[in-house]
Write a structure and sequence with these properties.
This protein is mostly helical. The protein has one domain. Helix content is 73%, strand content 0%.
């Protein structure tokens, strides 16, 4: 049962981040870079974050390098909290979202970073690991 839940968590988490990456591409990475600039971050980070979300989402769905991708996503999420969401508070301020969902995502990513891919994954096929007892 734990294995099934881990697989579901990894795949759904991957779909969520794949969607975030696609969304940034659809907005236009130049526009996202402009928004990053407007909040005091270097615009090139928009490209980095978008590709981490897009490729990382695909890798999570496939169960490829799950632990490493999860750590990268934790870094992205902590960055989002401290650069964009912290001023809005935990639940948001009515104009922008808070960081409660980011905290939940961090916990999911932390679990995956510790637990690994589990079961149906390319990690298990390629590296013969990921199965936890």
């Amino acid at each position: 049962m734990k294995n099934t839940v881990t697989i579901l968590m990894r795949v759904v988490f991957g779909v969520i981040f794949l969607a975030h990456g696609i969304s940034k591409l659809q907005m236009g990475l130049g526009n996202v870079a402009g928004w990053f600039d407007s909040i005091g971050l270097p615009g090139f980070l928009a490209y980095v974050v978008a590709w981490i979300e897009l490729i990382g989402g695909i890798m999570l769905i496939l169960g490829l390098l799950t632990r490493y991708v999860s750590v990268l996503l934790i870094i992205v999420l902590v960055g989002a909290i401290f650069t964009a969401k912290l001023p809005s508070g935990l639940l948001g301020n009515g104009q922008s979202a808070g960081y409660e969902l980011d905290l939940a995502y961090i916990l999911i990513a932390l679990y995956l970073a510790v637990a690994g891919s589990s079961g149906l994954s390319l990690d298990r096929v390629l590296f013969r690991k990921g199965e936890q007892s």
